[in-house]
Amino acid sequence: MDNVIDIRGISKEFKEFSFDSIDLQIKQGYTTGLIGANGSGKTTLIKLMMNLLQPDEGEISVFGLDYATHEKAIKDRIGFVYDSNIFYESLNLKEISKIIAPSYKQWDRKKYKAYIDQFELPLKKPIKHFSKGMQMKASIAMALSHHAELIIMDEPTAGLDPTFRRELLDIFQEVMVNENRSILFSTHTTSDLERFADYIILIDQGEILISKRMDELQEDYALVKGNSDLLDRDTEAYFLNIEQSQGVFQALTNDKAQVQKVFGDYIVMEKASLDDIMFHMKAAHRRG
Amino acid sequence: MFNLIRKDLIIQKSQIMLFIPFVMFFAIFADHMSPFFIFLIASLYIPLNGYIYDEQVESNILLNSLPYTRKEIVAAKYVGSAVYMILSIAVAGIILYLFNFDFLFRDIVIAAGLFFFFAALTFPLFYILKPGNIGAFIMIGLIVSAALLPPALRFLAGHLTAITDFITSLSTTVLYISGTAISISLFLISWLASQIIYQRKVF
């Protein structure tokens, strides 16, 4: 299977965390969710993928091309959505499209107009009077109007109310199904992804903790609940992380068969949500 | 790159409407002022406004996410500012002419020379300094230079007669040509410096 983004051995130092020789692949034609707590390095990773930052070491290729020689060709095929407004605030959508449109080889005016209509956005109102949700929709309309093969979105649902979120997720899903593009989507609200992500990448403090297919993830991991009496040094080893309170424990395992064999009916095993996985993996990672 | 140059016109639509009354104001009320100064201010109007707009939003992130290279973004600023300088001086010239404000071709040459000089010094700052600090920096710079320049020039005139003699001995043509050559060279060096700075910039 082809990779739309291929990251090989990148390292970069930051104050709060560092990337140390990271390898990561984003599959072509699928939706990949990039999850992690605030400050885990999601935005930085996206900036590296967009060449807004350059790694100290290692290589990043997008569509099999490298930024050093094919920067324009790569960016022509990417649609981007960031969580903060990056458009000139005093301009309206009509004026902004005059700046954006000519930079892309395949800008589709009809499509842009159709999205603006669908999202019920005003063409002549300055962006600064837009709500957060409207800004996001405007950003998405632009990302989707130039036949981009890869859509990179950094927290597109942050700060949006639930109905709006739902609406946006439906739009993404529609785009995926109808047009077969690749989407990379970062969020700290994992419920956004459970509905439609094919791959999940979990990152914490600049380290990739998980990079798996969504169905594999749900197959491999399970949430285990039981009485704390069951835990001792030997049995604790079956779990990635354990939380205890009031005599009961809740733990994450990636060895379902073994846990079932050891604990039998003394425990309850449940499907682990992305939130559970993120929470426990992060705790385990921070514990070292 | 043409699109990037045109971008400065689109984002400053309302400011550009003000450009004509702005120059007219000078044409009517600034009759004691040297015409080259009016040309200089007019020529800096669009390029500086463009930078000020760009630093208000995260336009670096926008422009660098679009299919442009960093080289092109810097090149568009320099080429664009020269283009806007020529257009602005032309418009200002027409306005001054209509208002019977006397000026010579010499004024235009001096203004263009000073424009290149001023641009060469300030443009790289927009790539070095953090957004928001630039306005203050330029204001302080102007005040400091206004305070220091006259005494410095007096000192030079008084003590370095050899230099002043040399300068006054040059014919005006030589003076203008060398002045233009120096300021354009500075402008090109500044372009190169900005490009190097911008290549390494982190957003």
Would you give an account of this structure?
In chain A, a hairpin with a 4-residue loop joins strand 1 and strand 2. Chain A is an alpha/beta fold and 288 residues long. Chain A has a six-stranded mixed beta sheet, with helices on both faces. A four-stranded antiparallel beta sheet of chain A has the order 2-1-4-5. Chain A has helices spanning 42-49, 67-76, 93-100, 109-118, 132-143, 162-179, 191-194, 214-220, 233-236, 256-263, 274-287, and strands at residues 3-13, 18-27, 31-35, 57-62, 65-66, 78-81, 150-154, 182-187, 199-204, 207-213, 222-227, 241-245, 248-253, 268-271. Chain B is an all-alpha fold. Chain B has one domain (2-200). Chain B contains nine helices and no strands. In chain B, helix 3 (35-56) runs parallel beside helix 6 (105-128) and helix 5 (70-98) runs antiparallel to helix 9. Chain B is globular, with a radius of gyration of 18 Å. The mean pLDDT of chain B is 83. The chains are: A alpha/beta (288), B mainly alpha (203). The A-B interface holds A 47, 50-53, 71-76, 78, 80, 82, 84-91, 95, 98-100, 102-105 and B 3, 6-7, 10-11, 13-14, 53, 56-59, 61-62, 64-69, 202-203.
What is shown here, in short?
The complex is a heterodimer of chains A (288) and B (203). By secondary structure, chain A is of the alpha/beta class.
Q: Which SSEs are present, and which pair or pack?
A:
The complex is a heterodimer of chains A (288) and B (203).
Chain A: E1 3-13, E2 18-27, E3 31-35, H1 42-49, E4 57-62, E5 65-66, H2 67-76, E6 78-81, H3 93-100, H4 109-118, H5 132-143, E7 150-154, H6 162-179, E8 182-187, H7 191-194, E9 199-204, E10 207-213, H8 214-220, E11 222-227, H9 233-236, E12 241-245, E13 248-253, H10 256-263, E14 268-271, H11 274-287
Parallel strand pairs in A: 3-8, 3-9, 6-7, 7-8
Antiparallel strand pairs in A: 1-2, 1-4, 4-5, 9-10, 11-13, 11-14, 12-13
Chain B: H1 2-11, H2 13-29, H3 35-56, H4 59-65, H5 70-98, H6 105-128, H7 134-159, H8 161-169, H9 172-200
Helix pairs in contact in B: 1-5, 2-3, 2-5, 3-5, 3-6, 5-6, 5-9, 6-9, 7-8
